[in-house]
Amino acid sequence: xRVGLMWRGDANAPAPAPAETRFRAxxxxxxxxxxxxxxxxxxxxxxxxxxxxxRDLDAVLVWIDPIVRGQDRSILDxxxxxxxxxxxxxxxxxxxxxxxGTKQVLYRTRQLPFGTDTHLYASLDALRDEWPxxxxxxxxxxxxxxxxxxxxxxxxxxxVRDAPAxxxxxxxxxxxxxxxxxxEMRFADFIAERGTYLRYFEAKGTFIDQPYCDxxxxxxxxxxxxxxxxxxxxxxxxxxxxxxxxxxxxxxDPEPRLYFGPxxxxxxxxxxxxxxSWIALLQTQTGVERTRLPLLWDADFLLGPPKQGGExxxxxxxxxxxxxxxxxxxxxxxxxATIDRVRGRA
Length: 346
Hints:
Layout: E1 2-8, H1 24-32, E2 36-42, H2 47-55, E3 59-63, H3 74-85, E4 89-90, H4 94-100, H5 104-108, E5 119-121, H6 124-138, E6 141-145, E7 154-161, E8 170-175, E9 183-186, H7 187-198, E10 207-211, E11 220-226, E12 229-236, E13 258-260, H8 268-286, E14 297-303, E15 313-319, H9 331-342
Parallel strand pairs: 1-2, 1-3, 3-4
Antiparallel strand pairs: 5-10, 6-7, 6-10, 7-8, 8-9, 11-12, 11-14, 12-13, 14-15
């Protein structure tokens, strides 16, 4: 059995030795199971070379975010579809990314446990025409473009000066990208800026929004899942959408995320709901069968007002494209699940 570990890198540099990469522990886990694992360094410029490499593998685990430094995954996703059709196991098939790894999944699951008041805007025109009324009636909202990572494409928006014409409303905008200052601008200008995102999707990109979470300062819990079993947790006190401290227009940097195994006591309520019902409900909503679930994915949760049954977790994102770093406890389950899927058992 041969497995590739893929990430985006320098097209002209030689592939590094596994021990020199950030994935060395994953390489070691495969080696301990007598499975040959090899680096697959990707760039659009060498897609043909990578295609030839992938066709000789049984599986490839992919860590490439959807939009990074102006590059998207359109060429890569076409390549992964092709090799998957040829029988190579892909850690997350691009069709599965479309089903559960974009922000639209927050709209599809809004009625499930962990859901909240979520709205979908299928075009920039819909966002421009429909959103002002909601901003007026419900206070600050968090707008999310359909695909992004690292805070790219997430903004907290609130009205600071209303106007009869929606275009002239003045809004305060806090970006989730680190180091971006708070800005006040006309609503029309904010909408116009969102058009830069649509160039990646032939003007067909969508947006969703959710209420701003007043308990944001209590932190975000990241639940790591291997196929359909919880494999660990991360917890971080996020600061990106908090109001900046006095005398600054930039939120402070967040504290490092802390990682835990699946048995961490404080997260057992979340684990129980995930494994007993929520993942199955997610599959029903997205149409993703167990044998096509990502080998590794995560779901991010904030704390909101308690709902029926006392549940207060609110889903704010599902990540399936570049889930790293991860708890050490997830590495062995990931290697085992990869081997099982190649053998038709997962």
